[in-house]
Write a structure and sequence with these properties.
The complex is a heterodimer of chains A (286) and B (361). With 286 residues, chain A is mainly alpha-helical. Chain A has one domain: MetI-like (MetI-like fold). Chain A contains 12 helices and 2 strands, in the order H-E-E-H-H-H-H-H-H-H-H-H-H-H. The mean pLDDT of chain A is 91. In chain B, helix 2 packs antiparallel against helix 3. Helix content of chain B is 24%, strand content 37%. With 361 residues, chain B is α+β, with helices and mostly antiparallel strands. Chain B folds into 2 domains: 230 residues, Rossmann fold (3-Layer(aba) Sandwich); 121 residues, Nucleic acid-binding proteins (OB fold (Dihydrolipoamide Acetyltransferase, E2P), Beta Barrel), CATH 2.40.50.140. The mean pLDDT of chain B is 91. At the A-B interface, helix 8 and helix 9 of A face strand 6 and helix 2 of B.
Amino acid sequence: MRTQNATAYRFLTPYLLIFAIFWIWPIISSFIISFQATRTVPWRFAPAFNWGRLIGDPAFYNALKNTLLILVIQVPVMIALAIVMAVLLNSPLLKARGLYRFAFFAPVVVGEVAYSAVFRLMFSLDFGIVNKLLNSVGISKIDWFSNVTPAMALIMIAVTWRWAGYNAIIILAGLQSIPEDVYEAATLDRVSRVKQFFHITLPLLKPVIVFCAVLSIIGTMQLFTEPFLITERGGPGGGTETLGLLLYRQGFRSLNFGYASAVAYTMAGLAIAITLVQLWLMREPK
Amino acid sequence: MAAVTLTNVVKRFGIFEVVHGANIDIADGEFVVFVGPSGCGKSTLLRMIAGLEDISGGDIAIGGKVMNDVEPADRGIAMVFQSYALYPHMTVEQNLSFGLRMNGNPKADTERRVRKAAEILRIDELMQRRPKQLSGGQRQRVAIGRAIVREPQVFLFDEPLSNLDAELRVQMRVEISRLHKELGVTMIYVTHDQTEAMTLADRIVVLKAGNVEQIGAPLDLYDDPANRFVAGFIGSPKMNFLSAKVVDTSNSAAIIELAHHGGARLRKPLCETFPAIGAEVVLGVRPEHFFEAGEGDCDIPVKADVAEHLGSVSYVYANAGPEELIVEREASRQRASGDHFKVSIKAERALLFDKAGARIR
């Protein structure tokens, strides 16, 4: 057995080496860097420098507020939408189910730059189809890119469009694992379809919904592409700047690696904390 | 309580007809078992009675009322599923009361019904547990309890014991039998296990490939099967079939010659039909109807291959020419592997079938 293990580890060594150098070491290194002042040469150990700044930095609180706002509004809306989409996809009445499944999943595989460019065009003040449609029903044009609230809404719409289908496919897998005879038993018990949904489907989907929610929370905590590409680097005036964008700005524009590392660890810590709270709230009763 | 009547019931899935005009009358309070091999249409028939499958043709009446277009919940039936179909996120108590609660049944009445079902099935101690915390037998009890609380006119059981181990199956069989006596309601039970059918049923409906082969009391089916399929399906170990040929017919009897047993002949009295001389026939003999040499009308030599000793009796799997026979022997007359011995057939205990499998009486 020991020889077998040794052989296995010899085969694993190349992977483990790459994993250690490119995954483990950056994680450790960034943690160390977060305690260093990195805008001096040479870098010096100054524990309060970055973490102290973080506590009093209005830009950090603005990014945190924006990230949490998106998290609180967009994630529940997207999960609810994904459940509705999954139920529709699962309906035996739906024709061309494969086509819909592909259509719902397609946004995930579309290039981020391409989809951001299309969203910018669609929501353009003068030429965008969205404003034209709003106009046609009597609603005045919205300047999606110059005002904070519409810009935030745009980010949420874009993220929801991109990920709702992905979550719907995961939830669909959960739906299809619920045995049909449970519903038949409920039908014989004269339980309506609506009550079946709320009293059987939703409770049985809980683990899958929790899984999707955890993935979405982690994703939203790292949100970068949409505010970077669609609302032009967190505009207007930092109104859609997220923690991911703040990290990028500090680390790769200002080359302030220490502060960027502190932001990164805060993001990871928050994601873990929120996920733990959610898992605790959704735990199975004993 | 209610009678159930199936008149020319047909079921088609697309172009495939899986039930070909079933006619079955089930009396009020009767325990009827649908039995047959996989794919014979027994579960489909049960699901049509429940309303979970549409009927392609014919009528299903419960309590004298045609139910073809009546919703499952309004048919006065309750069903116990093979997989139990319990709500996994609910406690036993919630499982039992779910249907009643969802329909706004008065709380006191719901509690009374749940308590009564729990008492009948002796699951009072399990009320706060969830299905995954129960054994297979306990889950099955809860599934039956959920049917009881509906106070149905007809109970439908779809292979309820097939997921249980052998010992538990016997135990639950007894419990279901007791339940039928206690409640006195009509029960329709689907199984592929002929032992379950024989032990539980007032009457058995034998199905094959969507056709009703025979309906009758268990022992009637055992002693007087309508055809070779029923003869082979009912009884464990199954009936032996020996190839034979009619060599003469005279004086209300047919003289038949066994094909693979050195020209052994048997005079089989008949009263209804007389096969033609030279016709190929099949002689059916149950394992317990092979007598000691000289005790019957025709002896055939066999060689013991394998012997199963069950205590009170032994089953000897013996080779007789190209045919393999199962012979039942009392424990005191055990045979060892490789023994050569003779068995005897009594004409009155042997059944005759034509080449197509129809009974010749």
